[in-house]
Task: structure prediction
Amino acid sequence: MKVLLAAPRGFCAGVHMAIQCLEIALRELGSPVYVFHEIVHNRRVVESFEARGTVFINQVEEAPPGGVLVFSAHGVSPAVRQAARRRGLRTIDATCPLVAKVHSEAIRFAREGYTILLIGHAGHDEIQGVIGEAPHAIVLVRSLDDVERLQPPAHAKLAWLTQTTLSVEDTARLIARLQERFPHIEGPAKEDICYATQNRQQALARLCGLADVVVVAGSQNSSNSRRLVDLALSKGTPAHLVDGAKGLHPGWFHSGQTVVVTAGASAPEAAVQEIVAWLVQRYGATVQECDGRIEDQVFALPKEVRRIVASAAQAEAREAFV
Ligand code: SF4
Result:
């Protein structure tokens, strides 16, 4: 068996930043730290934080007044921010800047009187947050059927936006159809599907032709991980999404195969290495790291976290002086 490791794979800059925010909050402010929804959509990451005193909540009211509440990488609606303020919570905003960009675009288009056709998955945390910015002005578009069903008033100003973690190919088809039906529709200056989602899809697309099986490390609720599985399946390659080696089934593999392993943007490299070790141990697989696009994006920590770090450093300096 040969294992080809796709590159890039795994953590993106937004996930890395959100995890750092939570690490720093736990270290400097102590547990419990509350997080609105999962910090990132990955079971292993969530469980490791739970074990260290993080409480993931779905309602702001689950955090006690005065508590510390982190907003996840997927962002939240203004209503959630207001509820946190009313409850007197100390908040840390770990929203990925590329998700925040979609929020800003929604606010701008809504302010200028556009109806926004938001392409994305119903119920996803990111979509709920963006819709919350301008619920009166946003219509969710999930499929080509939804595009066909749209009946906007004749002179409505239309704009499209998308979730950051969609299939590049499927979304291009939806946008093309929107543009066909509504030639004056506008879009964002720069597309919303993020660099990490695009890079992981491109890397996998290049390798699918070589693969007998694809294994994607990631959780079931991770949109960008699921899109990697969809991509492999669309090219006729069997593909499986697993959190780690425990999710693998011997019936999926046999000796002599080429197995491509990749990981969604919220999946830790430890999950990938566990999967590879399982394949090596059972099938004597040889492992090859593939070349891929270098990702050097780094997102700055939000200012409230930088402040926490600075005051911890000052306190340490004072102690050393005394
Ligand atoms: S997948 Fe993209 S949008 Fe989501 S956190 Fe990572 S960089 Fe940000």
About this structure: The chain has a mean pLDDT of 97. The CA atoms of residues 73 and 95 lie 4 Å apart. Residues 13-96+298-321 form a domain with the Rossmann fold fold (CATH 3.40.50.11270).
